[in-house]
Write a structure and sequence with these properties.
The complex is a heterodimer of chains A (784) and B (269). Chain A has 784 residues and is of the alpha+beta class. Chain B is mainly alpha-helical. Classes of the chains: A alpha+beta (784), B mainly alpha (269). Chain B: It is a multi-pass membrane protein.
Chain lengths: 784, 269
C-alpha cells in the first residue's frame, strides 16, 4: 500500500511540473505556526448499512466497508497571517481537506495541529433553524462558534448591519430568500473574530454589492493578520487574495508555492485537458456532420483567461494612478466556448463606497471582437489621462454575451486603483471644462450680486490656496519649533515638546499650517481618535489648538489664515471615505459661530456641566481601588461592556490602549484613577478618572468606563471619594448622551459655552448623522 | 475519555452560552406559533389525568390503598406518579433521535454533540417543573396544607438525573446505527407505564413482586417522590444515594459508548 501510493506521486511528478516552495521561508519562520498538517490522509469507508458501521467499531479486525481515498499524505504549515488558496477540479479533495481542518471530519492517518479559533464557511447557514428568526439564529450560531452571551450581544447589531437585512431580522429564516439566508450566514461567520477562517466556495454570495463587501471584509481580515484558507474556482480571486496556493488532484498535492505560478500551471493543465476533450468531441462531431466542425473551439465555456491592468505600463493588482496624467490599460484575454456566440467585454469602475463610477462595453462602443481558430481572443482598452479624482477605486472586467445580456465570467476586482492628484479638486471624476473671464473696467462699482464673475474669480483663487500672501499645507515635524512658539504666543503659556508629542501621538502629520512668507502664522491641530460610531469602529479626529498669530488675527474672512487652516484639513481628511470619518472638537460657542457662518462647521452636540454633591458615607456595596499594573487587563473587559451599550452613539474608544496612553503615559500626569468593584466581586464594574477641579472648588470627574447599568453606581462611588478628599462637589463635563446614563444620580445640569462642531466642508449631511449622539466627557478634551 | 468523569460530558460549563441558547430554543420550539404556548405544558398532563381518573375510578371503581376514598385524592396519587413517568418517557423516547435529527451538526459544523442529552433533559425538567407547580397548588387546595417534606423533591430529581443522561447517551449513540431503536423504545415505554407504580403503590403488591419492582428504574423515584409530597415522609436518603450512584455508573457507561462510537456518526448520517 505504502509503495503503491509513493509510486503514484512520482508518476504525477513527471506529468506536472513541481514548483519550489517560496524562498521567503526564513521570513515566515519568525511568525508562529498556527496550523500544521503532517501526512494528512482521509480514506472514506463506504458501508452498505449503518449496522455495518457499528460492527466495524465493535470488531475492528474485520473489514465491512469499501475504501475510497479522498486525500493522500498532504503536509503543509501555515503561519499567522498567511492566506492559503486551494485549487483543483471537483473531487480533488479540497473540501475534504478543509473539513479535516475544521474538525468536522477526522483524518484516517496523519496529524493536524491547529491553534486558535476557527470559523468555517463550509456550508453557509448549516446551523440555522428555519423556524426561528434571523436574530435568534445569529445568537445560536455565535454560541456555536464559541462566543459568550456578552460578546454576541456586542456584535449583534454589527452583524445585522453587515447582512443588510435589518428589516427582516425578526422574521423566521424560512421566509428568507436564499440570498438573504446566505448574507446572514456570511455575516455571522466573519463577525466572530476567528483566528483562522476557512472558506469553501462561499465568496461569490449575494448580489454584486454584497459580493464586493464580503470580498472587502475578507481582504480586511487578511490585513488584520488572520490566517485564511479557502478554495475557489475563481482563479483571479485566488491570485489576488492568497500568499500561497496548493493544487490538489485526486487527493494528492500536485504543486505548492506562489499563487501566480501555481494558478498558471493549473490553468494550463485545465486548458490542455479541455483541448483533449474537445478534440475527441470534435472528431466525433465531424463524423456526424461536417458543419459542426467549422465552429472549432478550445473549451466548452466562454471565459476570461487573463486580465492585466497596467498604469503607465506597470502591471499590478494595486496600482497607483496619477489623476489626469496616467494612462490606464486593461489587457483582456478570453476564450469562446464551442456553442457560444462571440462574447463582448465590459469594464466597470467602482468607488470605494461601492458606487458605480463608470462603465463601458465593447458591444456598445462598436468594437468587433475577433478570435483565432482556437477560439481565443484578446482585447485591450486604453484610458488615456484617466479623469478619476483622488481616492480608491476598483476596476472589474466582465465577459458578456454579444449583446451584453448574459454574463459568462467576471473578474471583480481585477485591480485596485489608488488615484493621486496634485490639485485639491474633490469628487469622483474631473469633467472636461474651460474658463473664461471678463475683467471689469476700473472705476465701475463692484456689484453685490454674488454671481458676479469678479467675485467668482477671487474665490477660486482663494480655494486653490495659491494666494501670494498665505500658503496652507499639511503640518509636519519640520515646523515643530515654530508650532511650539506660536502656541506660547497664542495661548500665553508654553507647551513642552514632550507634552506635544504625547498629545499628538508623535504623529508626523498633526494638522494643517498656514505660512506667511515662510513664517508660521496659523495652526489647526488634529489628533486621531479611534471611535465607535453607531456601533462601527471608525477613525475620527479631534480638532483643537486652533491658533493664529496675534498680528494676523484680524483677518477673519474666508481669505484669512484661520479659515484656510481649518478648511484645508477638513476638506482633505475629514468626511465619508476620507482618512477620518468624523471630526469633533470642543470650541467656545463664540469661535464656533464664526466657523458655522463660514461653512466650516456644523453644530453636532453641546457640553453641559453636571454637578453632584459629595456624599459622605462608608462604601458598603462597593470598593474603590487604585489602578495597579495587574489591573490593566480589566480595562478592555470594561470597555467591551461599555461598547455593548453605545451602539446608537458616537464615542471615543476607551480600551486599555487608550486609557494607558491618555491617563497613564501623560507627561506630568495628575489624575487619580480608581477601579470600582462590587464588594465581593473579583472583577471590577467600572473605572474612574478624577482630578482636582481647576479652581479648587471640587473634584472633576474626567472620565469613566463602565456599562450603562453600572454607570450610576460608579458615579455614586465618585461622590463618596469626593467627600473622602474633603471636597464639596463633584463636577463633570458631559454631553447630553452621557447625562442620559446618569439620570438616576440626579446631577445638577448647567449649560456651558462649549459646543461640539462637525465638519460642514465636505458632506454636511454625513456629519449630521452623529448629531446629538456624541458621548463625550472632560477626558476627551482636557489635555492640560 | 482518559478521566473518570470527563468534563465535556459531566460538567459541560465550557459550553454554557451554547447550552443556554439550545435549551431556550428547545423549549420555544415546541410551542412556537401555537396560540396557547406554554399553557400546553399544563393542559396535556391534566387532560391525561382526567382520563385516567375517569377510567380507574368511575369505570373500574378502583381505590388507592391506604388513602382516603375520594376522586381528588386518587388524582393526586396518579398525577405524582405520572409526572415522573412522563419525565422519563420524554427523555428516553427522544434520545435515539437526538443525533440522527441533527445531521448538519454532525457533518457541517463543529459541534459538541455530547451536550445534546443535557439539552433534552433540561427542557424536560422545565416541563416537569411546570407540572410540579400545578401539583403543589392542587395539594395545597385539596388538603389545605403541604407537608414540609416536599423540600426533598429537588434531591429526588437530582438523584434521577444521572440515569436519564446515561440512557440518553447510550440510546443517542445506538440510534445512529440502529434506526429501529426508537421504535423499540416506544414499544417498551407503554408496558412500563403499567409496570411502574403509577396507578398503584408498590405496597399494594405481593412482597416477592415488590423486590422485583426494584429492577424498574422508576420505582424508587416514584415512591420517594410520593413519600415526600403526599405522605409527608422524608424519602429514604440511603436508597436515593445508592440509586444516584448507580445512575452515575450508567451515565459513565453511556458516555463511554457515545464517545467510542461518535467518530462513525459522520459516516452513516
Amino acid at each position: 500500500m505504502c509503495s503503491d501510493s509513493s509510486s503514484v506521486i512520482s508518476e504525477k511528478e513527471k506529468d506536472f511540473p513541481v514548483i519550489d516552495k517560496p524562498e521567503d521561508s526564513s521570513v515566515s519562520d519568525n511568525r508562529s505556526v498556527v496550523l500544521r498538517a503532517d501526512g494528512l490522509s482521509k480514506v472514506y469507508h463506504q458501508y452498505p448499512s449503518p449496522v455495518a458501521r457499528l460492527r466495524q467499531i465493535i470488531q475492528p479486525e474485520n473489514q465491512y466497508y469499501k475504501a475510497f481515498t479522498a486525500l493522500n499524505n498532504v503536509s503543509f504549515e501555515l503561519h499567522k497571517g498567511e492566506v492559503l488558496g486551494l485549487v483543483g477540479r471537483n473531487g480533488a479533495g479540497k473540501s475534504t481537506l478543509l473539513q479535516l481542518i475544521c474538525g468536522t471530519l477526522t483524518p484516517s492517518s496523519g496529524e493536524l495541529h491547529v491553534s486558535g479559533r476557527i470559523a468555517a464557511l463550509l456550508e453557509l447557514g448549516a446551523g440555522f433553524n428555519p423556524e426561528f428568526t434571523g436574530r435568534e439564529n445569529i445568537r445560536l450560531s455565535a454560541a456555536l462558534m464559541g462566543l459568550s452571551d456578552r460578546e454576541t450581544e456586542q456584535r449583534l447589531e454589527g452583524i445585522i448591519d453587515f447582512s443588510g437585512i435589518r428589516n427582516f431580522i425578526d422574521q423566521p429564516v424560512n421566509t428568507y430568500s436564499s440570498g438573504m439566508y446566505v448574507r446572514l450566514a456570511f455575516s455571522v461567520a466573519t463577525s466572530v473574530d476567528p483566528d483562522i477562517l476557512v472558506i469553501d466556495e462561499a465568496l461569490s454570495v449575494g448580489d454584486g454589492d454584497f459580493a464586493r463587501r464580503s470580498f472587502e471584509r475578507i481582504m480586511s481580515m487578511k490585513e488584520q493578520g488572520k490566517t485564511i484558507l479557502f478554495c475557489s474556482h475563481s482563479l483571479y480571486q485566488l491570485e489576488t487574495l492568497c500568499s500561497r496556493a496548493i493544487w490538489l488532484d485526486k487527493g494528492n498535492v500536485i504543486a505548492e508555492g506562489q499563487p501566480d505560478k501555481v494558478v498558471a500551471e493549473y490553468q494550463s493543465y485545465l486548458d490542455r485537458l479541455s483541448l483533449n476533450d474537445s478534440n475527441s468531441g470534435e472528431t466525433e462531431a465531424q463524423n456526424q456532420s461536417a458543419v459542426a466542425g467549422q465552429n472549432s473551439s478550445a473549451t466548452s465555456d466562454t471565459r476570461l483567461t487573463s486580465v492585466r491592468v497596467l498604469s503607465d505600463g506597470v502591471p499590478g493588482k494595486v496600482l497607483t494612478v496619477k489623476s489626469e496624467h496616467s494612462c490606464l490599460e486593461v489587457d483582456i484575454s478570453f476564450v469562446k466556448g464551442i456553442s457560444d456566440d462571440l462574447p463582448g467585454v465590459a469594464i466597470a469602475i467602482h468607488s470605494s463606497g461601492g458606487q458605480l463610477v463608470s462603465s463601458c462595453g465593447s458591444w456598445a462602443d462598436g468594437v468587433k471582437v475577433e478570435i483565432n481558430d482556437a477560439g481565443q481572443g484578446r482585447l485591450r482598452a486604453v484610458f488615456d489621462k484617466i479623469p478619476l479624482l483622488k481616492g480608491r477605486y476598483t476596476l472589474g472586467v466582465l465577459l458578456f454575451c454579444q449583446r451584453g445580456l448574459f454574463l459568462h465570467d467576471e473578474v471583480e476586482p481585477a485591480a485596485t486603483l489608488e488615484v493621486v492628484q496634485d490639485g485639491r479638486e474633490r469628487g469622483l471624476i474631473s469633467l472636461p471644462r474651460y474658463w473664461s473671464q471678463e475683467t471689469p473696467v476700473a472705476g465701475v462699482s463692484v456689484n453685490d450680486d454674488p454671481s458676479d464673475s469678479h467675485i467668482k474669480s477671487v474665490s477660486v483663487e482663494t480655494v486653490k490656496g495659491t494666494s501670494s500672501r498665505w500658503q496652507v499645507t499639511d503640518a509636519t515635524r519640520a515646523s515643530q519649533q515654530q508650532k511650539l512658539e506660536l502656541f506660547h504666543k497664542a495661548f500665553g503659556q508654553p507647551m513642552s515638546e514632550a507634552l506635544w508629542r504625547w498629545k499628538y501621538h508623535s504623529a508626523d502629520n498633526d494638522g494643517s499650517v498656514v505660512f506667511e512668507s515662510g513664517k508660521l502664522v496659523a495652526f489647526n491641530g488634529a489628533i486621531p481618535r479611534r471611535s465607535l460610531v453607531l456601533g462601527r469602529e471608525t477613525l475620527t479626529v479631534q480638532l483643537g489648538d486652533v491658533m493664529v498669530a496675534p498680528e494676523v488675527r484680524g483677518v477673519l474672512t474666508r481669505k484669512g489664515p484661520f479659515y484656510l487652516a481649518a478648511k484645508h484639513f477638513l476638506e482633505q481628511y475629514v468626511g465619508r471615505g476620507k482618512t477620518y470619518a468624523y471630526g469633533f472638537g470642543f470650541p467656545h460657542a463664540r469661535s464656533c459661530r464664526l466657523g458655522v457662518k463660514q461653512g466650516l462647521y456644523v453644530d453636532t452636540d453641546r457640553i453641559d456641566q453636571a454637578r453632584w454633591p459629595a456624599f459622605s458615607a462608608r462604601l458598603l456595596r462597593w470598593r474603590a481601588v487604585d489602578l495597579k499594573p495587574a489591573h490593566l487587563k480589566y480595562i478592555d473587559m470594561l470597555w467591551r461592556q461599555m461598547a455593548a451599550d453605545v451602539s446608537d452613539l458616537a464615542i471615543g474608544v476607551r480600551d486599555r490602549q487608550y486609557i494607558e496612553h491618555r491617563y497613564l503615559n501623560k507627561p506630568e500626569q495628575d489624575y487619580l484613577i480608581k477601579l470600582v468593584f462590587r464588594r465581593f466581586a473579583l472583577k471590577p464594574c467600572g473605572l474612574l478618572v478624577l482630578k482636582a477641579h481647576r479652581d479648587g472648588s471640587g473634584i472633576e470627574l474626567i472620565d469613566f468606563v463602565s456599562s450603562r447599568a453600572d454607570a450610576p453606581s460608579v458615579i455614586r462611588v465618585a461622590q463618596v471619594l469626593t467627600a473622602q478628599m474633603g471636597q464639596q462637589w463633584l463636577f463633570a463635563w458631559t454631553t447630553p448622551s452621557v447625562q442620559a446614563w446618569l439620570d438616576e444620580t440626579s446631577p445638577v445640569i448647567e449649560p456651558t459655552e462649549v459646543v461640539i462642531p462637525g465638519n460642514a466642508v465636505n458632506d454636511k449631511e454625513y456629519a449630521l448623522e452623529v448629531k446629538d449622539r456624541w458621548w463625550l466627557t472632560g477626558g476627551d478634551t482636557d489635555f492640560r | 475519555m482518559s478521566r473518570l468523569f470527563p468534563r465535556e460530558y459531566f460538567f459541560p460549563v465550557q459550553h454554557k452560552a451554547l447550552l443556554k441558547q439550545l435549551i431556550r430554543r428547545d423549549i420555544q420550539q415546541r410551542f412556537r406559533g401555537s396560540w396557547l404556548g406554554l399553557g400546553w405544558a399544563l393542559i396535556t398532563p391534566m387532560a391525561m389525568l382526567a382520563v385516567y381518573t375517569f377510567v380507574f375510578r368511575t369505570v373500574l371503581n378502583a381505590r388507592w390503598p391506604g388513602a382516603e376514598d375520594s376522586n381528588t385524592e386518587f388524582a393526586l396519587q396518579i398525577f405524582s406518579g405520572l409526572m415522573i413517568f412522563s419525565l422519563f418517557s420524554e427523555i428516553v423516547s427522544r434520545a435515539p433521535l437526538l443525533v440522527v435529527s441533527q445531521p448538519n451538526m454532525v457533518k457541517k459544523v463543529i459541534f459538541p454533540l455530547e451536550i445534546l442529552p443535557w439539552v433534552s433533559a433540561a427542557s424536560s425538567f422545565f416541563y416537569t417543573m411546570a407540572s410540579l407547580v400545578v401539583l403543589l397548588l392542587a395539594v395545597a387546595v385539596v388538603r389545605e396544607s403541604v407537608a414540609v417534606s416536599f423540600l426533598a423533591i429537588p434531591f429526588v430529581l437530582l438523584a434521577f438525573l444521572p440515569l436519564l443522561l446515561g440512557f440518553s447517551w447510550l440510546l443517542a449513540a445506538l440510534g445512529v446505527y440502529l434506526r429501529d431503536i426508537s421504535h423499540i423504545v416506544g414499544l417498551i415505554l407503554t408496558p412500563m407505564l403499567f409496570l411502574s407504580p403509577v396507578f398503584y403503590p408498590v405496597t399494594a403488591l405481593p412482597e416477592i413482586v415488590q423486590d422485583l419492582m426494584l429492577l424498574n428504574p422508576l420505582t424508587v423515584i416514584i415512591e420517594a417522590f410520593r413519600a415526600c409530597l403526599l405522605d409527608g415522609r422524608w424519602p429514604d436518603f440511603y436508597m436515593l444515594t445508592a440509586y444516584g450512584a448507580t445512575g452515575v455508573i450508567v451515565a459513565r457507561f453511556g458516555a463511554w459508548c457515545f464517545d467510542r462510537t461518535r467518530k462513525g456518526f459522520a459516516d452513516v448520517l
